Amino acid sequence: MTDHAAHRPNVALYLKVFGALLVLTVATVAVSHLDLPKGPGIAVGILIALVKAGLVAAFFMHLKGEKALIFGLLAVTVFFMLHLFVLPVADHHALQERIVPIVPQGPGDIGKPAEGHH
Amino acid sequence: MSSGAASFPGAFPVHPDTHSGITNAKLGMWLFLASEVMLFATLFTTYVVLRVAAPEWPRGWEVLNVPLAMANTFILISSSVTMVLAYAKCWDKDLAGFRRFMVLTIALALAFLVIKGFEYGAKFEHHHYPSTSIFYAVYFTLTGLHGLHIIGGIAILGYFLAMSYRQDYWEHPLFLGRIEGTGLYWHFVDLVWIFLFPALYLL
């Protein structure tokens, strides 16, 4: 018989996931109409998107029941992706303090901070 | 014990790599998808940084066509379903069923592009281009790169649909793995849109 490293398909399950994805898509748009404040609005939107992504990844991409090596690869990817998200904005507090108004400075003032800032 | 030795000259038995239990093709595809995750994550981060730093930024629905994008979301999710059903038919060695679902997947992908075309066309008609503003630069870059991935996916899907008309190719023991790999890529393209849609249109 064929030696399947591939995953046995489960059509009934795929159709159920399809239904769930359709419902979640409607939910995504419905939530956007709720006029939530920015923070919670973004959080809920991302949360629903993560659930949809999880369903696609687990069942359509056959991650559920996949070998550990693939999970290891994805864990490394997610690890670096989180760094990619965080690093550009990690020092935004420090940047806020360093914003100085542009003050005309003579040649001897190079390196001196603007007036009123240390 | 060779698995599924095909009938044409030069055929070879297929075993998954016994060390990892995963074929090279599948591992290779996941590695490629990992790199694609980094690519789109970079663009998403760029979007976040630019938006947070901008003095003002429109809400998605004020500027973009949400109903069209929602239709596109349904279309792409449906294409993911037809793709995985094509895989199921390939597993069952149901050639007609396989072709039917591949054609459906391609048709849905083309429908996505057509709707995208209407969206872009409307923008261009109003003289909104990537150079118009940072918002439009972000919008066109993210959706444009995603659209290129759709086009590439259509090419791959079309290739395997065409190859299924060759008996030796259809009966090749590696064919199922190729369809599974194609499915992985296609589901990834769907995944990116699942994040793009709320990020651009609903926030």
List the helices and strands and how they pair.
The complex is a heterodimer of chains A (118) and B (203).
Chain A: H1 11-32, H2 38-60, H3 68-86, H4 92-98
Helix pairs in contact in A: 1-2
Chain B: H1 24-53, H2 60-63, H3 66-91, H4 95-125, H5 134-163, H6 167-170, H7 175-202
What keyword list fits this structure?
heterodimer; A: mainly alpha; 4 helices; B: 203 residues; mainly alpha; 7 helices
Number of helical runs of chain A?
A: 4
Give the distance, in angstroms, between the N- and C-terminal Cα atoms of chain B. 56 Å
Class by SSE composition of chain A: mainly alpha
Identify the biggest protein-protein contact and residues per side.
A-B, 47 and 56 residues
Oligomer: heterodimer
Query: Would you tell me the overall average pLDDT of chain A?
Result: 82
Uncertain regions spanning at least 5 consecutive residues of chain A: none
Give the tally of β-strands of chain A: 0
The major β-sheet of chain B equals: none
Query: Rough shape of chain A?
Result: elongated
Unreliable spans of chain B: 1-7
Query: β content of chain B, as a range?
Result: under 5%
Largest sheet of chain A: none
Strand content of chain A is under 5%
Mean pLDDT of chain B: 90
Q: Please tally the helical runs of chain B, counting DSSP H or I stretches of 4 or more residues.
A: 7
The number of E-state strands of chain B comes to: 0
Overall geometry of chain B:
elongated
Short note summarizing the structure:
Chain A has helices spanning 11-32, 38-60, 68-86, 92-98.
Explained architecture:
- The complex is a heterodimer of chains A (118) and B (203).
- By secondary structure, chain A is mainly alpha-helical.
- Chain A has helices spanning 11-32, 38-60, 68-86, 92-98.
- Chain A is 60% helix and 0% strand.
- In chain A, α1 packs antiparallel against α2.
- The longest helix of chain A is centred in the middle third of the chain and has 23 residues, at 38-60.
- The model of chain A has no long low-confidence stretch (mean pLDDT 82).
- Chain B has seven helices and no strands.
- Helices cover 75% and strands 0% of the residues of chain B.
- Chain B has helices spanning 24-53, 60-63, 66-91, 95-125, 134-163, 167-170, 175-202.
- The N and C termini of chain B lie far apart (56 Å).
- The longest helix of chain B has 31 residues, at 95-125.
- Chains A and B meet through α1, α2 and α3 of A and α1, α3 and α7 of B.
